[in-house]
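[scheduler] slot 2 assigned
[scheduler] job type: sequence-to-structure, two independent chains
[scheduler] chain ordering preserved from manifest
[runner] begin chain α
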Amino acid sequence: MLRVIAVGDVHANWPAFWRALQSAGLSDEDGNPSVRLLSGSSLVLLMGDLVHPKTPEDYARISGYRPFDDQNKEHLKAAADNQAYALRKLREFSFRSGGHLKILLGNHDESALSHRHRLKSGAHLQHREFDPSAGGTPLDPELRAWFLGFAREVVIGRTHFAHVGPLPSMSQYDDFFYADQDPRQWFLARPELVAECGWNFGVYGHNLMPGGIRMDRQHRFAMIDALECGEYLELRFQSSEDLDTPPSVRVVRF
């Protein structure tokens, strides 16, 4: 049996992320991979958007500046340094996991690499901390190389994992992506897309679920950008020889 722990968008909420892994029995209190993870019976899958806190208060928490000013270079450096430290810890954990942790590339992660699109939080605060043209501190070469290795989708049998949704175009963060309404609305307006793409089940992030993970059992997908609600998704594939069978799925609160 394969157990997959899918964790929604982190957005620099590292305390919640590490609590989720400890709750799942996959990390100890010091941030070391557990025997259960190293055995290969469990897989951790992060849905992307590791960077860019969601709110001004989250920026204040990680930077130590209240209020946080996205025009102040000292504030930006503090936010970048805090995130870079946490990312290096995750990178080390990933390398030590024996390949049993996989990370999807979110649009915020891509923005931190390319700076082609300067994104904003819901409070209209601009995510400038990794953009040197805006006074930020760029990701160091090791973190950049690591980010560039993130997948745009992961497929286990006929179960699909992607940051945004089931269409390949939803994983290309170009001008069309930001102009199109589908990335924000597909799960409400076109929930049949998962089945039309040939998947037995789909797991996606990107769209904030303030009430907790949204399960659409009729259309066989879950929207799991709900880490701040203290939830992750657990999928169990009963046979490693028959991964095409839909997994059993449950929401876990930690």
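[runner] end chain α
[runner] begin chain β
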Amino acid sequence: MTAQATGLIIAAGSSVRMEGTDKIFAPILGRPIISYSIQAMEECPDIESIILVVSSDNLAKAGLLFESGSCSKIKSVVAGGERRQDSVRIGLSQVQNSHWTVIHDGARPFITSEMISGSLAHASINGSAVAAVPVKDTIKIVDESLNVTDTLARNQLWAVQTPQVFETKVLRRAHDKIKQNVTDDASMMEAIGEKVSIFQSEYSNIKVTTEEDMRLLEILMND
């Protein structure tokens, strides 16, 4: 890589589907879930600095990771906002001289340093990089009565993940312009007419959102 990159780890969700469990600091093989994302960025030579965005309730816990010195690339730990995009915007305000910003969900612990380097290599050629995998299942559109109204062409469908890599200055412009709710930063970039390029990720790059996901995660990590 010839350009600087900052890793922005977003972990400010409320874990409402986890039945009271704080998924970000839930232990998996004796380590909090977020530590796996931090380690991947710490070990990636293309990442110069890391910013953690957590809920206000987790500032103290995240601060211990920062203060321990075990992760030398962590530059700041900040409290997120009400929506995911608010949290990204807050984290983005901490990014300094990096050409690229790599956004990753802290609840996706299967990220690797190789995946991050690959995403940045893809972005350097294509202008952006969004992790995704081809959809395996048939996707139906249904109405309010759960009746099928359409079947989508599966060969054109991809399930989007993180990391997502964009030029920092363009990402800031998108956050300045787009105020309506969006599901991810790729959607925001699409809304301002920017090119969004997909790279094929791994199916194992799952996001922990439920207790069932936690059990699956433990199985996969013990394999």
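[runner] end chain β
[qc] chain β: The CA atoms of residues 134 and 156 lie 8 Å apart.
[scheduler] slot 2 released
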